[in-house]
Structure formats: structure tokens, C-alpha cells
Amino acid sequence: MPISNLIAGPRAGKDVRALSVALVLALFAPGALSQCGQLIKMKSYEVCVPSGWATSERGDGDMLAACETSKPCPPFFGAAPKGITFLFVRPAEGLYGHPTYEGAREVVEARPHAGLPAPAVPEVDLGPGPSGAKRQCFMARRQLSWAGAWEEHYGLKVGDRLFSLSTRYEDRPDRIQEYRTAIMGILSSITPK
After folding, report:
1. pLDDT averaged over consecutive 10-residue blocks of the chain (193 residues)?
2. pTM for the full model?
3. Per the count of CB atoms within 10 A, which of 23, 76, 96, 192 is most buried?
4. Using N-to-C axis directions, what is the helix angle for 176-189 and 13-28, rounded to 10°?
5. Is 112:95 a contact under the CB 8 Å cutoff?
6. Which domains, and CATH codes, for the chain?
7. For residues 147-156, b (16+ Cβ closer than 10 Å) or e, as one string?
8. How buried is residue 140: exposed, middle or buried, by Cβ count under 10 Å (0-12/13-18/19+)?
């Protein structure tokens, strides 16, 4: 099966190829990484999120919640989303009751699946990122037809640090490419302190 089908599903293969080309060009354009909408400094990492997004620290101050709105992110996510409803970034140490992980793939595979079959876990090429540290990223995507949404989980290794990112966004064909580009930009910007 082509990687574009694993990443976006059978109906979006063409869009993903176009997105891949656009993302590579954007990441390697001069000054692309220096154009950060909002630089958020957490206890153990820094991350860039788009301008105009709401952000807040959650839990112990090292988990970032971000959403595509100027209003505070909602405290629960049961309703059908509008835009990118939520995006959580956090260090993976101790997540889901695991004290340590062997790597980025295991961060995604350890995520609870609520009784559903485990989704495919392809690798995502992010390049070196702003710090130049080696990056490795895996993701799992599931379409939530009941909510008209996509839910994605990422395991990211930057140098020797592991991170987890979870997001949910509306299944709106005219905006999916925009949402996924924003998510890839956030993943590519995560830099441990």
C-alpha cells in the first residue's frame, strides 16, 4: 500500500503527494524555520505554534494544549470539532503508565485504542528541525466518522528525548491539507532544552 494511503486514507493520496512536495519546499526555504508564529517555552522544550492559536500549559506545566482559535481551548473533546480542536504536546516519559519507552514508535503503539483495532503506524519524515538534532517520528491516524473528524497520535524522538503529540481536527476536505501542514510544522519545531 502506498505511504500516502497509510497517512491520509485512499481518497486523499493525490493531496498528500502535493502536500509532501509543498512541505519539503517550505521546510527548506531560506528563513522558513525562523518564521515562528508563537514560540512557546515549556519546562523541558520549546515549540512553535501558528499565530492566533490559543495555548495553555496543562498538568505539571510541561504539557502544552493548543487549538486553532483565539478563545481558550475547550476542557473536553466529545463534540464534533471545528478546525483543529486540540493539539497536546508533552514529553513521553511516564505517559500511559510506561516509565520509559524504547523509541518513538513505541510511544504511539502504547496509546490506548478504546477497544478498537490498532491503526497502522508509519514513519513520518520531518528532517532535522531547527536544532539540527536527528529526528524520528511515527504516527497513527484514525477517522472518527461519528464526529466527522480525524484523530492523530505521534511519537517523536529528538536527539535522545521522546515526545507525544495528540490532535483532533474536522474532516473538511477543503482544509485537511492546511491542518496537516500546521501539525507537521509544530512537530518539526519541537526542540528539547
Report:
1. 42 39 35 71 95 88 88 67 85 75 91 78 86 89 90 94 93 94 94 93
2. 0.77
3. 23
4. 40
5. no
6. 3-192 (3.40.1000)
7. bebbbbbbbb
8. buried
